[in-house]
Amino acid sequence: MKTKGAILWGTDQEWSVEEIEVGDPVAGEVQIRMETAGMCHSDHHIVTGATPMPAFPVMGGHEGAGVITKLGPNCPADLAVGDHVILSFIPACGRCPACVAGHMALCDLGAGLLMGQAISDGTYRVQARGENVIPMCLLGTFTPYMTVHHTSVVKIDPTIPFDVACLVGCGVPTGFGSSTHVAQVQPGETVVIAGVGGVGMSALQGAVLAGASKVVAIDPNPWKREQAQKFGATHTYESMAAAIMPLMDATEGRMAEKVILTMGEMHGDYIEEGLILTGKAGTLVVTSMGRMDAGEVKMNSFLLSMLQKTVKGCIFGGGNARQDAPRLLQLYKAGQLNLDDMVTRSYSLEEINQGYRDMLEGKNIRGIIRYTEADW
User: What is the average per-residue pLDDT within 188-211?
Assistant: First the structure.
């Protein structure tokens, strides 16, 4: 079918909204009419080259929610036309060694996420200007219609608004799980969240619901620090350096049991700053993405070992999208997880470049693209 999509033709260029062709679903695939798409910082990493792509063009977007319109052969029996679904940016086969071990966020299917070939048959589902297009994370939610493998699809409660549902495909479970699954925040602990955009605000809420007694939000943006208090932050500071002495005073020198780095772009010297805020036997969780070609990390290895600190990486919150997404949406329905205030602004697909400018200028916690009948 012919529709439109936001295409990137090279690094350091703007997204180009233009006509594309989306293939029909083959065995194991579904076609989805998109309602909303989240504008995550990870897509901007493709623009800057921080996440290098094997080729261009690329269609962006890996957060999204919509309605199934077509099913290919051999799809799971629990999926049907009309179902409301979200897209999981890492597919989960349920059979590979990682999935069987309970690490579905590390499913072996993730090895091909940036290559563009469909899981089902190794061909491409999207073309633009006669060329094959690589959809971000084999999804590409910056289009009103998409064809994807069923392992990237999670059925959700149809009463959930699409505006918030799209967030549980990446940002919310990544941040929330950083606190609950990876850091394993315990009641009464002091937790530091450095960087409070969409992922950071979710990590903050995860720490609050896990029972943290002190939740410290760090961000250079005054508006985001103010917003962090709405989501449960007890203390806010403009930088990790500025938080050192106040945190020392507030904890009688013990510092934080858990520190989670969720800034928009990771740099190697942030590790050392985070470890300074991490107490004895504490855990530093690195959720932020850095440049794939950056290899330098700064840390004091003496204090790392002598104070028995731990540094842990984190992808997708260390969770399981099929289990976590419905549970997070149930927390939302129960009024325990604030997703409404996470969505700062909505944009049309044609406004995508303005949306990313707003993100980079710190005006949004999360911007979303909302599709309408005019797009379908």
Answer: 97
Among the listed residues 311, 252, 315, the one whose alpha carbon sits nearest the alpha carbon of residue 285: 311
pLDDT in tens, 204-258: 999 999 999 999 999 999 999 999 999 999 999 999 999 999 999 999 999 999 9
CB 86 within 8 A of CB 172: no
And the tokens for 211?
Answer: 């029972």
Residue with tokens 């051999």: 74
HEC string of the chain? Answer: CEEEEEEECCCCCCCEEEEEEECCCCCCEEEEEEEEEEECHHHHHHHHCCCCCCCCCEECCCEEEEEEEEECCCCCCCCCCCCEEEECCCCCCCCCHHHHCCCHHHCHHHHHCCCCCCCCCCCCCEEECCEECEEHHHCCCCCCEEEEEHHHEEECCCCCCHHHHHHHHCHHHHHHHHHHHHCCCCCCCEEEEECCCHHHHHHHHHHHHCCCCEEEEECCCHHHHHHHHHCCCCEEECCHHHHHHHHHHHCCCCCEEEEEECCCCCCCHHHHHHHHHEEEEEEEEECCCCCCCCCCCCCCHHHHHHCCCEEEECCHHHCCHHHHHHHHHHHHHCCCCCCHHHEEEEECHHHHHHHHHHHHCCCCCEEEEECCCCCC
Tell me, what amino acid is at 121?
Answer: D
**pLDDT per position as a tens digit, 282-316:** 999 999 988 888 878 888 888 899 999 999 999 99
214-218/190-194 β-pairing: parallel
**Model-wide pTM > 0.90:** yes
